[in-house]
Amino acid sequence: MLGCSWGGTRALGTILDDLPDEPSAALAVVQHRGFGPADKALPLLLRRRCPIPVEEAEDKMPVEPGRVVLAPPDYHLLVDGPCFALSTEEPVHHSRPSVDVLFESAADSYGPRLVAILLTGANEDGAAGLRRVKESGGMTIVQDPDEAERRAMPDAALRTGAVDEVLPLAAIAQLLGSLVGRQDDGR
Amino acid sequence: MEGVQTISGLQERILHEPNCLDRLIVDLAVNVTAMFRDPAFFVALRDKVIPMLRTYPFLRIWNAGCSSGEETYSLAILLEECGMDERSRIYATDINDAVLRRAREGVFPLEKMREYTANYHRAGGTREFSSYYDADSKVARFRPSLVRNVVFAQHNLASDGSFNEFNAIVCRNVLIYFDRNLQDRVHDLFFDSLATFGVLGVGEKESIRFTRHAAAYEEIDPDQRIYRKVV
């Protein structure tokens, strides 16, 4: 599960670029977005970089390998056991979709089988979610704030003390590629 | 909630105290909504659905899960602008009596009006949005005449049955909070409640594709998830 905000489109491109053709885990992304033309074009931009399909989430879409599921604008994206779910609850950290909402719900459903990655961003969304992932036994990875286009988001995550790895993008891409490239590995 | 420590304590109060269940539902249910949320949906209603429904002498529309009424008032405004308000009735239902009371009042925070006005114009609104309400320093009071043909009533999608035959059902971003079994139940209910050629509008990220009635509907606007029952 990946979360990011300001600068996220470019960072996501770098990471999705390195995915194997048949990843063994389900992948989901929350990128903060609104209603501008760039927001609308996000799936298109990511599809260009990603070897597997990138689809905006629909209600009750199964959590399964083979595609990257993207949170749609103006909905929270949640994991509810075997399915993704959507919600129009209040924005969290002024954001709908919110990274915290995805991470926390995914941690509750998948616990130690979850890998959560937080990238560049200009607010503190995602930090509480990462902590929940860690508490549930999952793996937490944060982009090196010195390298991030905006460092507020990774900095906030580091302050929780719940981060397993702090890495530059290229290394995150490589790590994710190897995590989802092997069969019988977690998410 | 209210100092209850355990689930069994909560159960006891729900069973023995009137109104306790209602208050619990207020706490648990998601009641976040906006007027003309997803303006493109209302454009599609105006351009594609209203012309079809115009042929009927009288329309019954069910706004299921209407919450505090923002969507209902949006539909009422659309019907008025299309000259259909006098020959249509909207049945606006929700599980929760407290939000229905708010819906009947039609009083919404003034600070929301900027967002709603922008939505209204993107939704193809043809008038000044402020002509629909009176503003004071904090709230916007919508004209009661807008909802003179609206029946607000309590209805539980999870347990209640069909109560009429409708020419259109609008139920947006309600079923996303239901699991697949409950969604199936509600889609049975909608199917049973729609007249032939009745229109079903669901949320932009919802679909009838996975339901057993998928084959009974044709798409009117696939992007806006508007369908028509063809059996």
Please characterize this protein's 3D structure:
The complex is a heterodimer of chains A (187) and B (231). By secondary structure, chain A is an alpha/beta fold. Helices cover 34% and strands 19% of the residues of chain A. Chain A has a seven-stranded parallel sheet, sandwiched between helices. In chain A, strand 1, helix 1 and strand 2 form a beta-alpha-beta unit. In chain A, helix 1 crosses helix 7, helix 4 runs parallel beside helix 5 (127-135) and helix 5 (127-135) packs parallel to helix 6. The longest helix of chain A is centred in the last third of the chain and has 13 residues, at 169-181. Chain A is globular and about 35 Å long. With 231 residues, chain B is of the alpha/beta class. Chain B has two domains: 1-30, no CATH class; 39-107 and 144-229, Vaccinia Virus protein VP39 (Rossmann fold, 3-Layer(aba) Sandwich). Chain B has helices at 7-16, 20-28, 39-53, 70-81, 97-105, 113-122, 180-193; strands spanning 59-64, 88-94, 107-109, 133-135, 139-142, 150-154, 166-171, 194-202, 217-221, 226-229. In chain B, 39% of the residues are buried. The interface between A and B is medium-sized, with 15 and 16 residues.
Provide the gyration radius of chain B in Å.
Answer: 18 Å
Largest sheet of chain A: 7 strands, parallel
Mean pLDDT of chain B: 93
- Major β-sheet strand ordering of chain B: 6-2-1-7-8-10-9
How many helices of chain A?
Answer: 7
Q: In the CATH hierarchy, what is the architecture of the largest domain in chain B at level 2? A: 3-Layer(aba) Sandwich
Number of helices of chain B: 7
- Tell me the fraction of residues in β-strands of chain A, as a range: 15-25%
CATH topology tier name of chain A: Rossmann fold
Helix content of chain A: 25-40%
Strand order of the largest sheet of chain A: 3-4-2-1-7-8-9
Largest interface, with Cβ-Cβ < 8 Å? A-B, 15 and 16 residues
Structural class of chain A: alpha/beta
Radius of gyration of chain A: 14 Å
- Determine the CATH superfamily of chain A: Methylesterase CheB, C-terminal domain
Q: How is the main sheet of chain B built?
A: 7 strands, mixed
CATH superfamily grouping of the largest domain in chain B? Vaccinia Virus protein VP39
Instruction: Label the overall shape of chain A.
Output: globular
Structural class of chain B: alpha/beta
Tell me the distance between the termini of chain B.
47 Å
